[in-house]
């Protein structure tokens, strides 16, 4: 999501907004709706808005096979990777009785394409919306430099709450 294409910049903004809203305690669908409101009036954002809306519909439908997610694209550009990650995160958060975080991550990387980007974005979204304890700990333990990343994440989290004048730690 670091490239200069306009849709890449908008995708990065949506992703950042989703993480920020998760940290504020918004549920996934509320966060998605509010994030979309930020860009839907921009003509250049229309393709991304439509793609995100399709991704959310797919996640809400309860689709659980990799083939279901292939129409969102292979995830080789920022918008496609974001949409696949949003769709699977939507599935896990809207249907926790049918699929858990580990199954969601496996689904995210099983549809082919840029599985590293899609898996990373999905994991970050799931972690933000579900919390670290609900992530598959056996997969978390395999992350390279996991302890360092947890320290950085904790520091950013503390800074986020201090920056917005919120209480830390949250209740």
Describe the structure.
- The chain is mainly alpha-helical and about 170 residues long.
- The protein has helices spanning about 5-25, 30-40, 45-60, 65-70, 80-95, 100-110, 115-130, 135-140, 145-165.
- Helix 1 runs antiparallel to helix 2 and helix 1 (about 5-25) runs parallel beside helix 7 (about 115-130).
Q: What labels would you give this structure?
A:
171 residues, 67% helix
Please state the CA-atom Rg, rounded to the nearest Å.
Answer: 15 Å
Q: Helix proportion of residues, in percent?
A: 55-70%
- Shape summary: globular
> What is the averaged pLDDT score?
89
Number of strands: 0
Low-confidence segments:
none
Structural class: mainly alpha
Distance between the termini: 32 Å
Summarize the main sheet: none
Secondary-structure element string: HHHHHHHHH
Strand portion: under 5%
Tally the helices.
Answer: 9
Q: Secondary structure elements and their pairing?
A:
Elements: H1 6-23, H2 28-39, H3 46-61, H4 66-69, H5 78-94, H6 101-110, H7 115-130, H8 137-140, H9 146-163
Short description:
With 171 residues, the chain is mainly α. The protein has helices spanning 6-23, 28-39, 46-61, 66-69, 78-94, 101-110, 115-130, 137-140, 146-163.
């Amino acid at each position: 999501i670091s490239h200069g294409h306009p849709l890449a910049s908008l995708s990065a903004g949506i992703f950042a907004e989703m993480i920020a809203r998760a940290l504020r305690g918004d549920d996934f669908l509320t966060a998605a709706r509010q994030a979309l409101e930020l860009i839907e009036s921009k003509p250049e954002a229309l393709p991304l808005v439509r793609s995100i809306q399709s991704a959310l519909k797919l996640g809400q439908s309860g689709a659980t096979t990799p083939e279901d997610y292939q129409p969102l694209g292979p995830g080789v550009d920022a918008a496609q990777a974001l949409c696949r990650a949003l769709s699977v995160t939507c599935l896990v958060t809207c249907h926790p009785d049918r699929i858990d975080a580990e199954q969601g991550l496996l689904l995210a990387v099983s549809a082919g394409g840029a599985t590293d980007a899609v898996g990373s974005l999905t994991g970050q979204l799931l972690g933000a919306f579900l919390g670290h304890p609900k992530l598959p700990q056996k997969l978390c333990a395999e992350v390279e430099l996991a302890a360092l990343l947890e320290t950085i994440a904790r520091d950013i989290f503390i800074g986020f709450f201090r920056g917005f004048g919120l209480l830390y730690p949250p209740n």
